[in-house]
Amino acid sequence: MGRAKKTAAWRLLEQQSEELSLCHPQQQYARQCQQQQRLSGCVRGVQYSSPSELADGNLLGVPRRVQTRSGDVQRDIRKSTSAGSPGRGFPTREPAEPQPILPIVVEPMSERTVPSPGNLVIRRQRRRGRYWREPLSNGADLEMVLVPGGEFWMGSPEDELDRYDDEGPRHRVSVPTFLMGKFPVSQAQWRAVAALPQVGRALEPDPSEFKGANRPVEQVSWDDAVEFCRRLSQHSGRDYRLPSEAEWEYACRAETSTPFHFGETITTDLANYRGTDNKERDLSGSYGRGPKGEYREQTTEVGSFLANGFGLYDMHGNVWEWCADDWHNNYEGAPNDASAWVNENRTESKKVLRGGSWDVNPRNCRSAIRYDDTPDYAFINFGFRVACAASRTLP
């Protein structure tokens, strides 16, 4: 297949995503100085503030791995296998209407201050990524972001604030390159796929409590999410599935090791969660030295907040997201290849959910947080996003 046909078949679009972190202004100044020389070759007119011009505040700590790369982050995809589906990837069928490659824009770091105790500074930097657009009948196309392969420490360290025992033991996992939904599945996307021919079970076309075409679909069970993937796979000829738990956490962290991909704490300006105290359950509306915030008491439209370093949105809060794995009480014996960890009798096993939701406190929205429920249970804060293998070499 020629280069032009490869480009058409993949229909990969360049996108810009914003990676950010929460840190003390003095630490922000030090980072700016370190990046000035590196950015000066491609960016002009960047103004750097002096330490005296940056407001002082309480130290929140520096994320251990939040340094972004200003260079090209495109990578060739070598043949890999999807979690739970060895050897399966994209078939050779080409999409009918190729999409253009959008131009790359590398922009300087910018910052803004979130009004809060400690004077948090959000550092933003443009990055470029690649994604696949899966057309759906009602125009609510499904965007699949290319997540570059790598290794990471899965789980939370023992000294992480408010961690749970089921988040350990921390272990090293190797993750092949794969594609993951840019957003949780929206209600418009759900309706489009629910109208496709049934594979195993019926799907309610409008199950959500909080209505809105661009809000995430909720009140869907694990069984419903699997049926969605099966119908989409049958329709597209590609192997769509739920992400494994390891893939989900790797994608959420996006090369960070802090409690949130934003950094050491989080605010309700950055995600949809309960930012007020829950006195009945003795849960705080803040995390660490971060501020309390608002409690919206409902879902928000997908993509309402900033993306992480891989270009994925809503990885913290909004809706819990189903994963392919069966539930295990800890990571003893967990696979280290990012495959889904499943039991022999899957029908009797609870399933994994990740990411937190609109009605839980920030402790339960961390990158390492885990939750479980039965595969037939649907609730107003349960949603999902899809994953897909990436088995062809990019042009």
Can you walk me through this structure?
With about 400 residues, the protein is an alpha+beta fold. The chain is built from five helices and 14 strands. The chain has helices at about 5-10, 25-40, 185-195, 220-235, 245-255; strands at about 10-20, 20-25, 110-115, 120-135, 140-145, 150-155, 170-175, 180, 240, 320-325, 350-355, 370-375, 380-385, 385-390. Strands 1, 2, 3, 4, 5, 8, 9 and 14 form an eight-stranded antiparallel sheet that branches. It has a four-stranded mixed sheet with strand order 12-11-10-13, covered by helices on one side. β3 (about 110-115) and β4 (about 120-135) form a beta hairpin. The radius of gyration is 21 Å and the shape is globular.
Beta content: 15-25%
> How many helix segments?
5
Mass-distribution shape = globular
**Mean of pLDDT:** 76
- Structural category is alpha+beta
Helical content class: 10-25%
Total strands: the figure is: 14
Task: Please outline the major beta sheet.
Answer: 8 strands, antiparallel
Radius of gyration: 21 Å
Question: Can you tell me the residue ranges where pLDDT is under 50 for at least 5 consecutive residues?
Answer: 1-21, 23-117
Order of helices and strands: HEEHEEEEEEHHEHEEEEE
- Euclidean distance between termini CA atoms: 10 Å
Question: Summed up, what is this model?
Answer:
With 395 residues, this protein is of the alpha+beta class. Helix content is 14%, strand content 18%. Strands 1, 2, 3, 4, 5, 8, 9 and 14 form an eight-stranded antiparallel β-sheet that branches. Strands 12-11-10-13 form a four-stranded mixed β-sheet, with helices on one face. The chain has a two-stranded antiparallel ribbon with strand order 6-7.
